[in-house]
Design brief:
- The chain is mainly β.
- The longest helix is centred in the C-terminal third of the chain and has 7 residues, at about 110-115.
- It has a domain at about 15-80.
- It has a 3-stranded antiparallel sheet, with no helix packed on it.
- It is about 10% helix and about 20% strand.
- The chain is flat.
- The chain has helices at about 95-100, 110-115, and strands spanning about 15-20, 25, 35, 40-45, 50, 65-70, 75.
- GO terms for molecular function: cellulose binding.
- Keywords: Signal.
- It holds the Pfam family CBM_1.
Length: about 130
């Protein structure tokens, strides 16, 4: 009796993940883009994104309304600035007409601000040999 052995070679791509606070993306970046679990890749600027922990704290306010300040940040505020609509709406049902009159937070309104923040020139290069 003859035994035949078959060797099966499986090619599995090696996927590297990025450690906390290391670069995971940007304009022109060619390295790994997947962060170690449970980290997420956060864009810091046009030239740098890094792996960081996501928010795992409170998502509601005890005493004050939670007001969105940007696409990434909200805060509990005792006051309601005139330039925004706070959550000072009663728990009553709001009809469609009143809802249409409210100026709600729209992340697209801030896209232009983000783009303009990315228009900084590249930092000057330093000749380390000259130092």
């Amino acid at each position: 009796m003859y035994w035949t052995f078959t060797v099966l070679i499986v090619f599995v791509p090696i996927v590297y993940s990025v450690e906390i606070y290391k670069q995971c993306g940007s304009e022109g970046y060619t390295g790994a883009t997947e962060c170690d679990l449970p980290l997420q890749c956060f864009r810091r600027s046009r030239w740098f994104s890094s792996c960081q922990k996501g928010w795992n704290g409170a998502t509601s306010c005890a005493d004050y309304p939670c007001e969105p300040r940007s696409q990434w940040y909200s805060q509990c505020r005792p006051d309601c600035p005139k330039i925004s609509v706070c959550s000072e709406i009663s728990d009553e049902e709001i009809d469609e007409e009143e809802l249409d009159d409210l100026e709600l937070y729209n992340p697209e309104d801030f896209a232009e601000e983000e783009e303009s923040a990315d228009e900084f020139s590249d930092p000057p290069t330093v000749d380390l040999d000259a130092l």
